[in-house]
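The instructor's notes for this session suggest beginning with a concrete chain rather than abstract definitions. Hand out the sequence below and ask the class to guess, before any prediction is shown, which regions might be ordered.
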Amino acid sequence: MPLPPQRPTAPPATGQGPASGTRIAQPGDGSCAPGARGDAADLRSGAGGTRGGPAYSRGSEAEDRPPKRRDAFFDNAKYLAIVLVAMGHAWEPLRGDSRAAAALYITVYTFHMPAFIVISGYFSRSFDASPHRIKRLVTGVAVPYVIFEVAYTFFKRFAGGDPDYPISLLDPWYLTWFLAALFIWRLTTPIWQAVRWPLPIALAIAVLASVSPDIGDDLDLQRVLQFLPFFVLGLMLRPAHFQLVRRREARLLALPVVAVALVFAYWAAPRMNAAWFYRRDSAQELAAPGWAGGVMTLAMFGCSLVLVACFFAWVPGRTLWFTALGAGTLYGYLLHGFLAKGSRFGDWYDADWIHRPLGEVTVTLLAGTVITLLCTPPVQRMFRFSVEPKMAWAFRQDAADLAKGRTTGRTTARAKGRTTGHAKRHAKGRTTGREQGRRSGRAE
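After discussion, reveal the predicted structure:
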C-alpha cells in the first residue's frame, strides 16, 4: 500500500535547487500523498497559514497569488516511495522462498508508508475546513475512495472468483484504506494544530489502538490510529527539518544505518510476524500479549522514523527525469493494485523460475517499470475522471470566488477599455500626421 495525492517549500540544498520553470506547490494547496493534484495525495507541496508556519492570506487573496514552482525534492520523494510500494507488493509472494526478499520486504515496509504519511501531513498544514479545502478533500480523497472501493470489489468478484463479495464503503479493501485514513486525518488537522502536545497524544492513541482488539474493521480504524503519529509528525515539520536530514553528514550517516537495518531484517525475517508492519491488527489479534502492542508500536515508530530520515537524506533535490512523475503517484498507487492482486488471482507466481534470484530481480524491475508507466501524464489524462474529478456541479460557488470573478471581470474590462482607447488615439495620431503631411506637400 501506499495511494493517496508547497507553500512554504523546503529551500533547495546547495546546488540542488529546483530547475527554473518547474512549479513549487504549496503545503495544503490540495495535493497530497500518494501525489495527485487534488487533496489526496497530499502527496503536492504546500503549507502556510497554520500554527508554527509562515502565514499567508487565505481565500481569494491566496488564490490571487501567482503560481509557485514545484519543489523537485518532494516530487522525487513521492515517486521513489511509490516505486518502493510497488516493489514491496511484488516481493510479498517471494518471502517464503527467499530470506533476502523477506529482509528487503520488512525493511521497506518499515518506512515506505510512514514516509508517504509524513509528506501527507506536511502538505496538510494549511487545512482549515474552509469551503475550498473541503471541496478539494471531497473531490481528491472521498470520491476516489468510493470509486476505487467499488471498482476493487467488482474486480475481486470477477477476477478473484468471489462473486458474492459485498460492496462495503465501511470496510476498505486492499489499497483504499489509505484514502479513508487520509480523509479522517485531514479532517482532524485543526485539532492537532490546537493541542499543546500533538505528537505524544497521537502516540498514546496509537498505543491504545494496538491493545484494543474490539475496534473492528470499519474504515480500517486500526491503521488510521496506528499510523496517526506519522501524519501528526508531518503537520509539525517545517522546511528546516527537511534541510537538516539532507545535509551531507546525514547522507553519509544514512548508509551504515540502512546497512544495519538490512542485517537486522535478515535476522528477524524468519522469527518475526511481518503483519506488525501493516498496523491493521491489535497485539491480541496477532497472538501476542496486550503489553506487546504498546512496546511494538513505540519501537516501530522509532525505527520507522530513523529509516524515513535516511530515505529523505538520499532523495535528490534537483529536477531529474522522473521528477514530473511525482505529481501522478496517486494514479500509480490506486491503479497498480489491480495488477498486484491480479498476479495472485492469476497464479503468476507459480512458475519456478520466478522464485530464483534471476526471477526475483526480474519481478523487481518489472514492478518498478509498471508503476513508473502508471504515473505518466497519458495515464493521468485517461483516469483523471476517477482520481481527480472536478465536480463543479456538486458544490455551491463560494462567495469569495464569486467576488473574485466579478473583480477579475471588471479588471479585464478596464484593461480592455484602456487598450482600446490607446489604440484609437494612436491610430488617430497616425491619421492626423499623414493628413498634415499631404497638406504640406500640396502647399509646396
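Then share the key points. The two ends are 90 Å apart (CA to CA). Residues 258 and 307 are 7 Å apart (CA to CA).
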